[in-house]
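Dear U.,

For the methods section draft, I wanted the exact inputs and outputs in one place so we can describe them consistently. I've listed the two proteins in the order they'll appear in the manuscript figures. Please don't edit the token lines directly; just add comments below if something needs changing.

First protein:
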Amino acid sequence: MPDDMDLCQQINEELIADALKVHQLNRPIGASLAACCICGGEIPEERRKAAPGCCKCIICQTEYESMHGRGM
């Protein structure tokens, strides 16, 4: 029979798995843009590789997230 710590660990793992599923569902799919859809500035290749489907430069993405919450 699992003890309290085992149950807490199981619940924690389920919550993390659920959060990852939601995060993946909210990620854009497809190629990243080379230019930001907000300011028109270049989106560095490193960002395009790290965040596939991104359409905003880091500055615009940060501002968007601060105004609207987490999102691509």
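Second protein (the one for the lower panel):
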Amino acid sequence: MQDRSTTDPLPVEKATELAEAVSDNIEDVIIGQRDAVEHLVTGVLARGHVLLEDVPGVGKTMLARALARSIDGEFRRVQFTPDLLPSDVTGTNVFNQKTQEFEFRPGPIFANVVLGDEINRAPPKTQSALLEAMEEEQVTVDGVTRAVPDPMVVIATQNSVEPERTYELPMAEVDRFMKKLSLGYPNERDEQRVLERVVGQHPIDELEPAATVDELRQAQRTVASIGVTDPIRAYATRLTRYTRENAQLGVSPRGTIKLLSAAQARAVLAGREYVIPDDVQVEARSVLAHRIRVGADASGRTGMDVAERALENVPVEQ
């Protein structure tokens, strides 16, 4: 297992080149979704996990596969179903008849990119099997704790249709996803380009890595070193406090931390060694909205509405 403390960060310009190269590579497969791709890449650079919610067939699963190929990482997929058990995600101890000992067989959580497909189709107990790995980067099975690979990113998908056949994700789990993204339908021109590309061999089959796992780990260290000034921290705090004052459940302190981490990654994407208010504003919607619960008397408001109003009403400087 790689020791994070021994990983040297890349120079900012090199980390920027890596982020752009990975984004370009993914866009060879996911056509016309540059904003979503960049949000995914900045999320990964900030050591975050991503929740994709959309209708079926718009490329959620393909996006995760393209990311794994682009960083030359190990990819594992978990199809969440009502009968899935927590051990199907984390792994289990199996008795070996030859050695007369129990051996641990790791589950799919032990990979660099873990796709939790249709996560809301599994009951909460199985969904919760992801929580320790997502927050603490480790898994405990039968009292033994094992570190997950570094890096490890969970990309979970859920359909925005058929709600009667799904389970609502508990807030404890939703809060562990740095971002919630939606791809949406492509425009007419981009959909025609998709059709041109997939005739014959699918472009995912020809996709070559744009970076290595080691380089990604170094770029993550770069992101963590990006400067955040006191005024930027104060601005992020005012944004999240606004959500708490204007919703039944606002953004947690964890959400504020994730917002600043995402802003650091956005600064790297722009080639800067420091965060500016624009970085916070670009990342705010995807980081904050899914953490907000407006309540039953919200008159049609959503978490995104509250996040938008926070950006409109909270001053950058005070």
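Candidate sentences for the figure legend, describing the second protein: The radius of gyration is 20 Å. The chain has two domains: 4-220, 226-313.

Thanks,
Y.
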